[in-house]
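Design review, sub-item: ligand-bound model
Attendees: FS, YL, KQ
YL presented the inputs for the arginine complex:
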Amino acid sequence: MSRMPLIKPEILFMSQKPWDGRFSENTDEMVEKFTSSIDVDKALFASDIEGSLAHLKMMAHESIITEEEATKLEKGLEVVKGRIEKGEFEYSDALEDIHMHIESALGDVAGSVAKKLHTGRSRNDQVALDVRIYLKKQTLEVMDSLIALQKVLVETAHKHMGVVMPGYTHLQRAQPVLFSHHLMAYYEMFKRDYERFSDSLKRTDVMPLGSAALAGTTFPLNRELTREILGFSKISDNSMDSVSDRDFIMEFISHATICMIHFSRLSEEFVLWSSSEFGFITISDAFTTGSSIMPQKKNPDVAELVRGKSGRVVGNLMAIITLMKSLPLAYNRDMQEDKEPLFDTVNTLKASIDIYTRMIPHVKIHGSVMRTAAEKGFLNATDLADYLVVRGMPFREAHSVSGKAVAFALENGKELHELSLDEIKQFSDLVSEDIFDFLSIESMISRRITHGGTGYDSVKSAVEKAALLLGITLG
Ligand code: ARG
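KQ shared the predicted structure:
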C-alpha cells in the first residue's frame, strides 16, 4: 500500500551549511579548518554513496519519498560518484566532511529534491554506517590476504621439509628443530589472526542506520529493508549505542596490532638470519636495498620497515582506545578522530601482509649453514639426559649428569657427540655405544613426534593438515 510522501522539498531548508539555520555568525576560518575532516574521510565516499542509495530505496519503498524522487536522487548520486572517481570533485573545509560534500554536490546535480536525502538520518548514524561498510570490505580483504600469506608459508615449509636449524630460547641455541616447524609457528600465528578478524567481522557486520542522531526517528524507516539492501547480517538494537559504538574499530585495530606484532617478530628473525653472523637466509635483490656509502651492503629493508611500521599500528591502538575512554553517550565529535588511526592501520596491515607474501618465495634458505649451527652449542644435552632417563635414572639426576658432561666437553673444546664412549661413561655407566646415534640430529628430531613437536612426522602432518585447510595441493 503506498502512502503519500511525508515531506515536501520546499519545507526543508538547505543553505550553504546544512546545519546553519540557527547560526547568525559565520564560522571562524580557523575553526572551519580545525573541525574539517574531509582530507581524511573522503576515503569513505563510496561507502557513503552506497549507504545513501540504500536509504533512498528504502524510503521510496515506504513511501516516505516518491519513486520518481528516489530515481532522480539515485541518478544524481551516481553522477557525484563518477565525479569523485574521476578526480573532478572539489573539496572545501567549509563543507566539513564527506557526508556534507556529497549531499551538497547532489543538490547541484539533482536540484532541490536533494534536500530529501537526509530524511530520518543524522550524520551520526550515517558515519557509523559508512565506517562499517568500509571496514567490512577491508576486513574481508585482510582475511583473504592472510590466507595467501598462510599458503606461501605452508608451501615454503613443505619445500624445505628436511632442513634442520637450531631452535632458540633466549636467543641461545636450545634444541634442533626443522626449519619447516619454525615457519609453521608463524602459520599458526597468522591463522589465529585470521580467526580474530573473522570473529570481529560479526560485530562490524551490524547495520546502524535508522538510529538517527541518537534516539531513533519519527519517520517510518524500514531498517530491515535497509539492512537487506546493504547486505548486513543484522540491525543494531539500541540507537544510542549504534551512533557511539566504536568497539568494532577498536577490535579491528587491536587484532591488527597483534598481527603486526607477529610480523615484527618474523621481521626480527629475517633481519637476524640474513646477517653475516647467522647467514641462514639470503633475501633476493628485488627485496633488499643497498647503502649509499658502503658498496658491500645489502639491507633487509622490507623486514626492517615492517618491524618499524608495527609501531604505527600500536600507536593507532593507543589513539583509538584513549579517544573512546570517558566519552559519555551518545555521539561526541571526538569520534571524528577515529578514522585516521583506522585507515592508517588498514593500509599498513594490508601492505605488510602483501609484501611478505611476495617476499617469502624469494628468500634463499641456506640449509647447510643452519645445520652446521645446529651441530654446535650442545643442542643434544637434553637428549643425553633423556637417554639416561630411559635407562632408569630420575630426570633431575640425569639433567645434572648431562650438565657435567657438557662442562667436560666445553673444557676439552668438543661437542657432546664428539666425546669418546669412555669419556661419556665417566659420568654414568648407563651409557653405551648407541648413545652416538641417539645424540645425532636426525634421531633427536625423529623422536619428537608428540602432537605439535618438531618430529618429521609431526611437522609433515601439520603441513598437510594446513594445506588441506587452505585448499592447496603440495608439489
Ligand atoms: N565527520 C563526523 C565524524 O566523523 C560526522 C558526524 C558529525 N556529527 C555531528 N554531530 N557533528 O564523526
